[in-house]
Every structure is written in C-alpha cells, then in structure tokens.
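User: Look at the shape:
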Amino acid sequence: MLLRVRAAVARLGAGGQPPAEPRGGDGGSAAGTSFCRPAFLQLTPEELRRADDHAGRAVQSPRDGRRRLPWSTGYAEVINAGKSQHNEDQACCEVVFVERRPSPRGRLPSREDGGELDGGRKGFYFHYWALFDGHAGSGAAVMASKRLHLHICEQLRDLVDILQDPSPPPICLPQDARASPVEPSRVPLAEDDGEVPNDAVPRFHLEKAVSHESLVIGAIENAFKHMDDQIERERASQRLSGGCCALAAVYLMGKFYVANAGDSRAIIIRNGEIIPMSREFTPETERQRLQFLAFLRPELLGKEFTHLEFPRRIQPKELGKKMLYRDQNMNGWAYKKIEEDDLKFPLIYGEGKKARVMATIGVTRGLGDHDLKVFSSNIHIKPFLSCFPEVRVYDLTQYEHCPDDVLVLGTDGLWDVTNDKEVADVVMEVLTSYEPNDPCRYTMVAQELVVRSRGMLKERGWRLANDKLGSGDDISVFVIPLGGPGNYT
C-alpha cells in the first residue's frame, strides 16, 4: 500500500498524465468540440487559440461592443501554466425565468393569480453567476456550467406562488404540487378525513417556522444534488471525466444566495469592509466529517487506511508506544497506545494545500468524481466527497450600496497567491481610477486581479510583484456590483 500511495503522491505532484479530453458542446453534451470557453466571451477562433496558449497566458474578458454581462459584471480568466492540457475552469452568467408549473387537469389561472411576466406567464427572474474549477478533465465542469442553473430553475418552479406570498410557507403542498394562493399557510387537518386525533392541538403548536429564504436555500442544495446525479448518469455516454468545484451566486428577490462546494471563494467588499460569503471545503476543514463517515463505515477504507489522525506517519518500531492522535470526536489531541491497525495510511494526510483524502484529492465537496479511486486500487473515494454546497445569504435591501461595493467570486487560482485584503485593495485601487457610471470598470477590476495573481513571466517562471511564485493554476474571476441592474447607469 505504501508504494501505491507514494506513486499516487508523485503522480499528483507531476500533474499526472493528461486525461483524454472530453468534448464540450451545447446542452451539456460532452460530444461537441474538443475545447470550449464560456459562451459569453464570444471568442473568435484566433482568440480561442490564444486563450489555450500556456506560454503567453493571455487574459480573456468580454470585449467592448459585444453583449455586456448583466449588471455590467466584470469577468476575466487565464489558462494555467501547463499543469493540464486545457483551461479546466468554466463559467456561466445567466438571467433565468422561473415559470410556475402548469395548473393540473387543465385548470385556467384565476384572476387572483398575479405576478404575470414574460408574455402572460406567471413566474419571476433570478440572476446567476457561477464558476466551476475542474480537475482530472474538464467534462464535469463543462456540463455543470451548462446545466446547474437549469436545475436551480426547476427546483424553484414549485415555489413561484409561495415566494411571492408574504404568508408563511405551507408545511404540506396540495396534491397538484403547488401551493394554493388561498390560505397558503393552512395545513390540512386530520378532521378533513373524518378523524381527529386526541393530540391534534399540541402537535400543531410544535410546528417549525420555515422562512422563504430557507426554501430558496433548499432549492439550491437540491439542484446541486440533481446536477451531480446527472453527471453520474451521463458520464459514460458523454465521456465526462473528472469532477469540479462549484461556486454559484443567485440573486433573487433582493437577496444574494452564494453556494459553495469546493475550494473556490466569494467575498463582499462593502465600504472597504470585507464580508466572507463562503468557506473552503478541504480535507482539513472537513476532517471530522470524513473521519466520522470512515468510523461508521470502515469498509470504505478498503483495509488500507485508518480513520485516525496522527501528527506524522507511524513507524513499525513504535508499536506499543504512546503517540498523539485525534479521532472524529476530537478537536484537541490525546495520547494512545499504538496498535497494528494504526500503521495503516491515514485517511487524511498532509497539511494546507498539500492535504489529501486517501492521498488522492485535495477538495472534499464538488460535482462529479464518480469514478475516482485510490491510485492502483479499487477503493472508491466518491463516498467521502459531498456534492451539497454551503449556502450563505446576503440581503441587499438592508444596506445602502455605492458603485464601489462588489461581490468577488474567484477560483482557487486567485486565492492561492492573494488574500482577501489584497483583493479588496486591488478592487478599491482600480475602481477609484474610473468614473462611477463607467460600465467597464468592473471588467478592469477582474482583469487586474487575474494579472496580479498570474504574475509576469520571468526567467524563473511566473512571478508576482514581490518576486514570489505566481499562480500556475487556471484563474477565473467575477466582479459583481452590488448596486443591481441599472442603478448606476
């Protein structure tokens, strides 16, 4: 086992063999073109060639005169320095209409059915931005960039009436899968069926209050799960390789919902203040969850790994001695007597960016990776990887925002070499050099963030301004003004 793990670590350090690149086409199919970039960039064939050049690493952004992104959003990206054949990041920016499901049994909408939009259809719009950081191939990232917002839309369709009604959400939906616009908070009583239980009154006093906000969070969480299921179903027919981290921002009814599954990051910069809108999910940050799963289901470890964590690898000569350890229940450390099972390779090994689950993968949440196994073994890693995001909410209506207040979304290629304060400093520096009503200012911020984290090519590789090593990873950045659509035009 030790030889296999060493080989796996060496393979990761060298970037591994370039995988057979899936083909990304329209509709989430991986059978279209060998290489694609986000559609909103509208790259010409020559620009596409330059975007795929590891040597030049030209920064790509939507060009002036082409379709501007919603809210004058800024976007920029750059390919990696050679660790993979293509840029494995993907991005999506859409305005999506959520239409209420058709009425059952041909019932026509009543006069009370308000909120009609878009040619008489009832529903609402949401704005959507997302970044997908692919690994071991771009197939999962390409499909997720084309499909995740549609899964979110589908999950919201049952909520069209509920979210537009100020009353508390119903506990149960009628059989037509839509809440009735009349008395939406009313729960059918058992007496409707001619039977009244003795404990009816106390039982209804114990019902939980559920907010509209939590329904949107649940819809986004379920959409991620459905997206992951679709990748699993279609991975063979569409030749979808690898997996991806996913970071999505949804603006709906005055609130931002930021969903993160992976190690990308989102921050809000408001009046110079930095507000974290995500946290990274890595083997270290999710240690206890991973250890607890391994403790409950030891068969997932394939008799090759231990769920316990030790400060370093244990040597056979240390059997019987007492060594520091911690398990799934512990934040601190304690001593235990070393036994034979403790000589197995630890489930989580390494520190910081080098920490790995089963010596294989450095992120613990994301989409895809259904075929990922420990190197040269039949041990599947997917059971330890969660597709569910953490969703944080920011209410835009609670604050007065100026044109310099922004939400920044970035893949780990940005954050590996740049911290939150440095990003905020760049944002403020660039924005102050442009007029508040200049719609290009946010694109300039995105470009500057990418350029500074990539660095300049020197004799010793890509270097930052302080001569430290620049990011050799794919870098993708959205800069979204918090003023909303048209506020500062």
Summary: Confidence is low (pLDDT under 50) at residues 9-33, 106-114, 178-194. DSSP finds ten helices and 20 strands in the chain. The first strand starts at residue 74 and ends at 78. The CA atoms of residues 30 and 114 lie 40 Å apart.
